Structures are given as C-alpha cells and as structure tokens.
Amino acid sequence: MFTVFVLGNIASGKSTACRYLESRGALLIDLDVLAKSLYVPGSDIVNALAEEFGWDILDEEGGVRSNILASRAFASPDAVARLNSIVHPVLIEQLSLRILDPVCCTVSTPRYPFAAVEVSAPAGFEDAFGLADEIMVVSAPLEVRRERAIHRGMEASDFDARCACQPDESSLCSLATTVIDNAAGDSSLFVQLDAWLARHGLMDATDKGTTDA
Q: How confident is the model at residue 208 (pLDDT cuts 50, 70, 90)?
C-alpha cells in the first residue's frame, strides 16, 4: 500500500491534513492513538514506562494516566528520548502490520488506495521512515503555530515547552520529500493536498471500504 508519513510540529495543521486525506480515501493511522492502544495494564511496555517515569503514572487499575505521563515525558528532550526508546520498537512493529500488504489473506479485509500515518514526534522514529513511500511535512511559522495553540486553549508556557522538545521547522522540512506550507490556513492547505493527490493519481480514490477475500 502506498504510504505517506505526515509530520508536523505542534499546531502546524498536520492533524487537519490527515483528516482531509482520510476524507479522500486514505487509511488514517495516528501514531499517538496507536501508541496508547499498546498501554495494556500489566504489559511489558506499561511496566517499563512506570519504571522510567514513576509508578504513579498508573491508575488504580494499572492503566496509564496519559496526562501525568505526558507532563514528565515531554519535560525535556532527554525525557522524550527515553519515552521513545521504550515505545518505538513495539510501535514500529504494530505499524508494519497495518500498512504492509499481507502475503496471503484468509479473511476479507478493507482495501484502501493509500495510507496516511500521522507522526507527531518524528525524533527517534527515523528507523521507521523506510516504511513510507513519501514523507510529507506540514509546516507553519512558530508565531502562527503559537497563536493557533493559544486560540484552542493551550497555555503559552505549555506550547513553548512542547516546542523545545521538537525540531525547528528547517530541520523538520529537511526530512521531507514534500513540504506543505500551512501558514495561510485550511483553504490553502486543502488546495495543496489536492494537488499532491492529483500528482499521485489519488484524487479519484474510490476503493475505500471494498474488501479483498
């Protein structure tokens, strides 16, 4: 399956881009959601997270308190690296199962013309880039992103702390095969995405929801 990884710093518009691609027929995989699905109480990955970031990140049932984990894991670049070292190996394995075409199929499975994988934290995830046919970066200037984040309810200090753990725009864009400029907002974003879809012959993707036996 043709696969595009969609990268972008906080408030860049990558989630909006991914939802738009989904509306155009993509199988959408949000790595944050996929990672959280791995947090099964009592699992090796949950125990490793608790040992690294404190057992009080777990609730009474052994589930991960996402807000507490996030406050510690995104406190510094070093903490992010420690989180990634625990989560990424399993995450890459699970992602591979979702986007690589099976050798054979014994059950009916949905078919999609392409997959869009939302990557919120690319640092340390470069080992998985080989799974992608293309790397798309949704980019916007820092001040534009700060204004967007504050408008949707984030404290400026929280935004700045998250930014400190993310690559700068030029470094992020250097990873891309395609850069989408999202300084102007949704209308311009969607026009650029439609152009990208057209270049790849995906504008008329109508296979979503069909099955292979």
A: very low
Q: What is the DSSP string of 97-154?
A: HHHSPPS--SS-EEE-SEEEEEES--TT-GGGGGG-SEEEEEE--HHHHHHHHHHTT-
Instruction: Answer yes or no: is pLDDT of 52 > 90.
Output: yes
Predicted TM-score (pTM) of this structure: 0.84
Higher pLDDT, 155 or 104: 155
Alpha-carbon distance of 17 to 182, in angstroms, equals 9
**Per-domain boundaries in the chain:** 2-104+114-204
**Could you tell me which residues are beta bridge partners of residue 2?**
114
Q: Which of 33, 64, 28 is nearest to 48 (CA)?
A: 64
CATH class of the structural domain 2-104+114-204: alpha beta
d(CA 81, CA 52): 12
30 forms bridges with which residues in the sheet? Answer: 118
Residues with Cβ < 8 Å from 154, sequence gap 6 or more? Answer: 11
Among 35, 121, 42, 120, which Cα is nearest to 77's?
121
What is the C-alpha to C-alpha distance for residues 129 and 125, in angstroms, rounded to an integer? 7
Q: How far apart are CA 127 and CA 112, in angstroms?
A: 24
Q: What is the mean pLDDT of residues 74-78?
A: 88
Q: Of 124, 110, 73, 105, nearest to 208 (Cα)? A: 110
DSSP-assigned beta bridge partners for residue 139: 181
